[in-house]
Model the fold of this input.
Amino acid sequence: MPAERDLKAWLNENPLPFASLLGIVFTDVSKDRLVAEMVVRDDLCTRPAICHGGALMAFADTMGGAAAMVNLEDGFGTTTLESKTNFLAGAPAGSRLVGECTPIHKGRTTMVWQTRVTIDGGRLAGLVTQTQMVLAPRLPS
Amino acid sequence: MPAERDLKAWLNENPLPFASLLGIVFTDVSKDRLVAEMVVRDDLCTRPAICHGGALMAFADTMGGAAAMVNLEDGFGTTTLESKTNFLAGAPAGSRLVGECTPIHKGRTTMVWQTRVTIDGGRLAGLVTQTQMVLAPRLPS
Amino acid sequence: MPAERDLKAWLNENPLPFASLLGIVFTDVSKDRLVAEMVVRDDLCTRPAICHGGALMAFADTMGGAAAMVNLEDGFGTTTLESKTNFLAGAPAGSRLVGECTPIHKGRTTMVWQTRVTIDGGRLAGLVTQTQMVLAPRLPS
Amino acid sequence: MPAERDLKAWLNENPLPFASLLGIVFTDVSKDRLVAEMVVRDDLCTRPAICHGGALMAFADTMGGAAAMVNLEDGFGTTTLESKTNFLAGAPAGSRLVGECTPIHKGRTTMVWQTRVTIDGGRLAGLVTQTQMVLAPRLPS
Done:
């Protein structure tokens, strides 16, 4: 894991394949607060043309996973155990989702992260709470 | 809404933009049970190369929304209020997710749908429970 | 509904039967923030002697329901559609749970409230997010 | 842990304090299906006189915890990580809640249990899905 000041570059230069497909860009990254953006492209929409709930959840899930990852010690991994989303307003095609992910709990075996997703930094579109399990390094066999 | 025997063709011929991007195909559709498939393409993955949790949630959300839609009376709409996912096993790149969506509750104002997502119809990868609000037709003003 | 300055007295003088059984007391009530307390009596515990998860959820659910209620217009009602809890630390018998309930969303048809439950105002024991449906007055038939 | 045929007696004879307060009785217990009942006493209600959502959640949480426990190896423990409830119908005072708890996932580190709660075995009142973490025995220090 790079130094904290380099986390943003590291995340943006090594995107997960699905995060690339969605066009997610991290704009501010520290160990206790991550901010990312995703433009609501037409192909991320439902009908009528607002952001598909699945795209919003994928956006937030990417952030929660990254948040756990930048808090892991070397050799440890993470996996999402569960995720809960409340949908609060539709984000129209062409708007920009801004997600802010902060910790509820950072423990040794689990972490809980919450992501507020707004439309262009204003109205709340969704709130996502997810539990990440911390995976210990596999011992050599 | 087409007759029940034509729902599958109708859903596959009028895919939501984001469902197209993900490659979701409905294989069996009735008002009380929908089955769909999604191949875990490389660009739907996280690292290591297993299906990104967001892609699995988007797959299930598409099914729950479709499930509500095929149960609506003419003029009514639906929106997802909230969604909860438990992740149970990673689906490797190249595998095929099979989702089966069945109703927990079909009410006048809300519906609750649950989707079991398996890897190639076998091991359970995730369980998604979502609440759909039923939107009454807008009266002409 | 009484004036905002009288909401606390009103809630404490008209407790729900189950809130009485649990010993829930409101200590600060406004339309955008409610605080309540519940002592972890021995009969609210699991084994080992920490607060039963169900008692914590009941405490928070009482607060979310009250929060919705104090925001309703005359004649309207509310019901909980769904609730999600993350458990973060066990509260020992004899400790005092302090809950702080704030709005995520206050809409015309649904409200979403989140309650942080701490042990004696310190360590976070649980986080509860719940959706309240707003019920319109029944018209006379 | 007693033999499987004796689990019901063991659970009913060693109730958790909060389960006693609520009057929960197990009526059928195996490692893959638990059934329990709880009468909606007046003091378990909200207003109007239907079962308080918190009482329903506590009922189901008791079942999910018991379900995990009867599947543990000697020396292991369990704790609830998170719980999600959908409320579907109000159970009137005097009715009897019947809960049926079955496994979604039984893994080495986590289990997921789902409890369907019906009113007198008929109408579905709520659906509860919860994740139990499996706690390894503490090594002697």
Notes: Helices of chain C lie at 7-13, 17-22, 53-69.
